[in-house]
Amino acid sequence: xxxxxxxxxxxxxxxxxxxxxxxxxxxxxxxxxxxxxxxxxxxxxxxxxxxxxxxxxxxxxxxxxxxxxxxxxxxxxxxxxxxxxxxxxxxxxxxxxxxxxxxxxxxxxxxxxxxxxxxxxxxxxxxxxxxxxxxxxxxxxxxxxxxxxxxxxxxxxxxxxxxxxxxxxxxxxxxxxxxxxxxxxxxxxxxxxxxxxxxxxxxxxxxxxxxxxxxxxxxxxxxxxxxxxxxxxxxxxxxxxxxxxxxxxxxxxxxxxxxxxxxxxxxxxxxxxxxxxxxxxxxxxxxxxxxxxxxxxxxxxxxxxxxxxxxxxxxxxxxxxxxxxxx
Length: 327
Ligand code: SAM
Prior knowledge:
The protein is α/β, with parallel strands linked by helices. Helices cover 45% and strands 19% of the residues. The chain is built from eleven helices and ten strands. It has helices at 45-48, 61-75, 79-87, 90-102, 119-142, 148-157, 174-187, 225-235, 253-275, 278-290, 294-303; strands at residues 10-13, 51-54, 57-60, 109-113, 166-171, 193-197, 210-216, 236-247, 307-314, 319-325. The strands form two sheets. It has an eight-stranded mixed sheet, sandwiched between helices. It has a two-stranded antiparallel ribbon with strand order 2-3. Strand 5, helix 7 and strand 6 form a beta-alpha-beta unit. Helix 2 packs across helix 10 (278-290), helix 4 (90-102) packs across helix 5 and helix 9 (253-275) runs antiparallel to helix 10. It is globular and about 70 Å long. Bound molecules: S-adenosylmethionine (SAM). S-adenosylmethionine is lined by residues 68, 72, 113-116, 119-120, 171-173, 176, 199-201, 216-218, 221-222. Residues 68, 72, 113-116, 119-120, 171-173, 176, 199-201, 216-218, 221-222 line the site of S-adenosylmethionine (SAM).
């Protein structure tokens, strides 16, 4: 059991949500596990302890967290609109594909880290609700001798439309979570959904707690990726699954050139016009280029203890779904 030392801010909603996260950690507490900062592989041993990348800028590890926080605090209100504009809506398909790959069943306990404004969590809730309804229908069809009144009564007596599934959205940024909660209210998501303010590198959850851990477009923003991966491994139950959706390196030279042109010439301009924030979108583009290759990232996932690690490229290699199991 990990040593938990203080209480994280968390909130919950929905009936019968008894999943209390009892043990949390003190801000600033660091585990003694070894870390290897992203992108600092060519620096000297001494520098490796203190320097990392913030986009194309070299910054101290201490500075990076604050800078990343500022980016998402600044973009939170326009985050969803910008995602649609920048990806021409394709991010929705990538997120749907992540859910099909996860293929959760009623009862699945999901932790969505760097969950931001809740896109993965809402898809998860819709998915398990549909699965659960389908299962109920099949069961009722099997009992053909029931009257319509009995069937209606059975539907009404089912008080958990999610069949026991729960999702916790964990993100380090209050503003992103605030927008997520507003979206949840607007979309009518209430039951089975909790929002927790927390750091991917020091998750405020007990060991062996979740069936699935997801992180979508989040891990490249974390200062110590290996630390976040170890935390993912720790909080998953044995048999649990890690799923990461992230930009990857494009190998086709023509697509790569077009992609570079779009990323560096168009996205910061969109950021300025729509969100009034060139710098944040420039960072987002640069951080994609600083992320390890899919092969390197696969090794990092394996180093954290995951097995059967795979990656699947989407949209000409622009994005990949990485998957692994805690066995
Ligand atoms: N997963 C969401 C999605 O796909 O729309 C949001 C992705 S957004 C690009 C990245 C998110 O990572 C932001 O909400 C940011 O606050 C969060 N983040 C950055 N560093 C983090 C950390 N160390 N721990 C938890 N969340 C972090």
